[in-house]
Each structure stands twice: as structure tokens, then as C-alpha cells.
Amino acid sequence: MATAPKDLSALEAATPTLIKKLAKMTKTLTPEEMQVLSEIVESAAIYTKLVQAHEEGDGDIVFMKPKSVHSTIKMKKAYANLSKKLGLEKK
Predict the structure, then answer these.
(1) Could you tell me the residue range of the domain that residue 76 belongs to?
(2) DSSP helix, strand, coil percent of the chain (3-state; round to 5)
(3) What distance in Å separates the CA atoms of residue 76 and residue 70, rounded to the nearest whole number?
(4) Three-class SS of residue 34?
(5) CB of 37 within 8 A of CB of 29?
(6) Each residue's pLDDT tens digit, 25-63
(7) pLDDT grade, residue 1 (50/70/90)?
(8) How many domains are there within the chain?
(9) Residue 26 falls inside a structural domain
(10) Alpha-carbon distance 25 to 28, whole Å?
(11) Smallest Cα–Cα separation from 52: which of 40, 41, 61?
(12) Taking the complete model, does pTM exceed 0.90, yes or no?
């Protein structure tokens, strides 16, 4: 499915303010909610680092088992649907 071109400059410029907003929001989370968010963000960071290493020519990329964030079927379904639930799903 084709998607519209992204304005990478605008997205890059928006990143710092998004991070500030997320940091502020994390102060309202319960310890359990914070743990879940932390594991989602850590998993995304690991994936991003692997993709970046591949783009930089690392031919020996080893994909690791997902973190404990994917510990139950119910949690897996919730994470798989997170983009849709947040209204972020690509159309």
C-alpha cells in the first residue's frame, strides 16, 4: 500500500516537543503503566538500532527475542492494536 510522502524536516522538528509532552505524561502513569510504556519504547529503540545498523552495512544482524512486553496473548493483541487505538493507524 502506497503512502503519502513524509515531510521529514517537519517530523524531525516535531520530535523534541513530542518527547517533552511524553515526558510530562509519564509523570501521571502508575508504576505498572510506566513499566509497560518503558518496555514498548525500549523495544522500539532496539528495533530502530537494528535497522540503522543494517542501513550502515552491518551484514551480521541478529534479531533478538522480543522483550517481556510481549508476555501474554492479551498484551500482544493490545500492542498490535495500539496504533489503531491511538488513532495513528495508516490509512
Answers:
(1) 31-91
(2) 65, 0, 35
(3) 5
(4) helix
(5) yes
(6) 999 999 999 988 888 888 888 888 877 877 777 666 666
(7) very low
(8) 1
(9) no
(10) 6
(11) 61
(12) no
